[in-house]
Amino acid sequence: WLGSRVLRHNDQAEQATKLLDEIDILTDGYSWRYSDPASRIALGRYYLERGADPKKIIDGVFTAVKKRVPSYTDAYIASGQLALDKNDFQLAAEEFGTALKMDASDPAIHFGLARAFASSDSEKADGHLLHNT
Question: What is d(CA 38, CA 65) in angstroms, rounded to the nearest whole number?
């Protein structure tokens, strides 16, 4: 997936598309290989980029991972990022807030919270941006 992005940035769209097609084949025929939480979250993000229905990804992938491994912060981060992409700032704040309770040291969580609060509470947003300074 990363390779396809590199190829696309280097004006090699045809090769990039071939890589994405290979990913589709691997995930369709051998999805059992990608059942660990990290792979599920990566696939959810991949499917979103490929145009999958966000509701299906939240319910079928991100929420499923959260139920299976409640302490897996990347599932909350991925849900929060998707909520930000959909301008659902309240849901984003909830998802990132849950992740923060599990890992207050992750800068991705603080950045997500800063983005979630940017339009409604600039003081909170700034606090998350400056939490490590």
Answer: 9
Nearest residue to 84 via CA among 94, 98, 75, 99 = 94
Residue in this structure with the two tokens 């491994």, named with its chain if needed: 69
Running DSSP on this structure, what letter comes out for residue 63? H
Give this prediction's pTM.
0.85
pLDDT classification of 18: cutoffs 50, 70, 90: very high
User: Hey, what amino acid is at 101?
Assistant: K
Letter string b/e over residues 106-121, b meaning 16 or more CB atoms within 10 A of that residue's CB: beebbbbbbbbbbeee
CA atoms within 13 A on the CB side of 48: 22
Residues recorded for the chain: 133
